[in-house]
UniProtKB/TrEMBL annotation, chain A:
GO annotation terms (biological process): glycerol catabolic process; phosphoenolpyruvate-dependent sugar phosphotransferase system
Role description: Component of the dihydroxyacetone kinase complex, which is responsible for the phosphoenolpyruvate (PEP)-dependent phosphorylation of dihydroxyacetone. DhaM serves as the phosphoryl donor. Is phosphorylated by phosphoenolpyruvate in an EI- and HPr-dependent reaction, and a phosphorelay system on histidine residues finally leads to phosphoryl transfer to DhaL and dihydroxyacetone.
Protein name stated in the entry: phosphoenolpyruvate--glycerone phosphotransferase
Catalytic reaction list: dihydroxyacetone + phosphoenolpyruvate = dihydroxyacetone phosphate + pyruvate
Upper lineage: Bacteria, Bacillati, Bacillota, Clostridia, Halanaerobiales
Pfam families: EIIA-man (PF03610)
Organism: Halanaerobacter jeridensis
The entry's keywords: Kinase, Transferase
Record EC number: 2.7.1.121
From TrEMBL, chain B:
GO molecular function: glycerone kinase activity; phosphoenolpyruvate-glycerone phosphotransferase activity
EC number: 2.7.1.121
GO cellular component, one term: cytosol
Species in which this protein is naturally found: Halanaerobacter jeridensis
One record GO biological process: glycerol catabolic process
PROSITE patterns, A to Z: DHAL (PS51480)
Function according to Swiss-Prot or TrEMBL: ADP-binding subunit of the dihydroxyacetone kinase, which is responsible for the phosphoenolpyruvate (PEP)-dependent phosphorylation of dihydroxyacetone. DhaL-ADP is converted to DhaL-ATP via a phosphoryl group transfer from DhaM and transmits it to dihydroxyacetone binds to DhaK.
Name under which the protein is recorded: phosphoenolpyruvate--glycerone phosphotransferase
Keywords: Glycerol metabolism, Kinase, Transferase
Length: 131, 203
């Protein structure tokens, strides 16, 4: 199953997006959320991201939803502590954080593979408000 | 304490002394944490130096890199962390203008790899690239080390100031678009402070 990692500058945002995703998915999807620095400031920490990726390393690929700037840079930095083969299974996607997390978790729970989940995360489509 | 440790201790003091100033610059075009981020990282560097023993200059720089990566929190953490990590890989034990150029190029390469910015995007690169170019030109022209360092310092200062009229293309300031004009980039300012401290310690 494809794993999902949510990275935000805010611990609450990451945690909240994870909760929203978990509520929708059909069955167990490996889900991790990382936000904030270890001393409780807004920001990101590549060590915490590395730990979350390690927890997801048994998944069939990992989709990463990140908010901005240092979230992306610290995620890419954390990738460098894995082998090239492992790194190929990590994909940062261009999708809105919350909608992206919900949809990625749902698609993964259907048993879709990494490429199929990515294909379902079209950022323009996801940004459309549905009621 | 070896010379490189001393230099980084001075850099840490400079950054910590300018915590408010760097934060004020970041408040104008960002989220107002650059001074806090950098001071947090460099306080930890000072703390690491209290207990660690180093057998080479490059080991000191590597330690600084890893400490900034783990403690800064903002974009400047992975950027400076990667820059110093790349520098530690090419740094020789004896200082030379030739090696300084190589270190400078490694720093630029690291920052570009991590942040994908170019010169003119209103980032730390706008202070660093002209500084390294000045060193390189002087090296190729056969200028002495000390004079080359003076030129490098001037270029870094001009580079830092050159960010004022620019519209930011990378980093948080880019979200402000045209409104990022008229403000000096906080990262270019901290880069200038780091370069200034290194050069003043060597000369
Ligand atoms: N992509 C990038 N490439 C190079 N430098 C960048 C980039 N993004 C941000 N910076 C630099 O980082 C500085 C901001 O650092 P800081 O405030 O610590 O991080 P954050 O933007 O995450 O709050 C900016 O002033 C700029 O010089
Ligand atoms: Mg900031």
């Amino acid at each position: 199953m494809v794993g999902i990692l949510i990275v935000s500058h805010s611990k609450e945002v990451a945690q909240g997006a994870k909760e929203l995703a978990a509520e929708m998915m059909q069955g167990d999807v490996p889900l991790e959320a990382v936000g904030g620095t270890k001393d409780g400031r807004l920001g990101t920490d590549s060590n915490l991201i590395y730990e979350a990726l390690t927890n997801l390393n048994n998944a069939d690929g990992v989709i990463i939803l990140a908010d901005m700037g240092s979230s992306v840079m610290n995620t890419e930095l954390a990738f460098e502590f894995f082998s090239e083969e492992e790194q190929e299974k990590f994909k940062i996607v261009n999708a809105p954080l919350v909608e992206g997390a919900i949809n990625a978790a749902l698609q993964s729970s259907f048993g879709k593979d990494l490429d199929e989940v990515i294909a379902a995360l079209d950022p323009v489509e996801l940004a459309q408000k549905k009621v | 304490m070896n010379k490189t440790e001393e230099v980084f201790n001075k850099i840490a003091d400079k950054i910590i002394d300018n915590k408010q100033y760097l934060t004020k610059l970041d408040s104008a075009i960002g989220d107002g944490d650059h001074g806090i981020n950098m001071a947090r990282g460099f306080s930890e560097v000072k703390e690491e130096f209290e207990s660690a023993e180093f057998d080479s200059n490059s080991a000191v720089v590597k330690k600084v890199a890893m400490t900034l990566i783990s403690n800064v929190g903002g974009a400047s953490g992975p950027l400076y962390g990667t820059a110093f990590l790349q520098a530690s890989k090419v740094m020789e034990e004896d200082l030379s203008l030739k090696n300084a150029v190589k270190i400078g190029e490694a720093v630029i390469e690291g920052i570009k790899m991590r942040g994908k910015a170019e010169q003119g995007d209103k980032t730390m690169l706008d202070a660093i690239i002209p500084a390294v170019n000045a060193l390189k030109e002087d090296y190729e022209a056969g200028v002495e080390l000390e004079e080359a360092l003076q030129d490098c310092l001037e270029a870094a200062e001009e580079g830092k100031e050159s960010t004022i009229p620019l519209v930011a293309k990378k980093g948080r300031a880019s979200y402000l678009g045209e409104r990022s004009k008229g403000h000096q980039d906080p990262g270019a300012t901290s880069s200038y402070m780091i370069i200034e401290t290194i050069i003043k310690e060597i000369i």
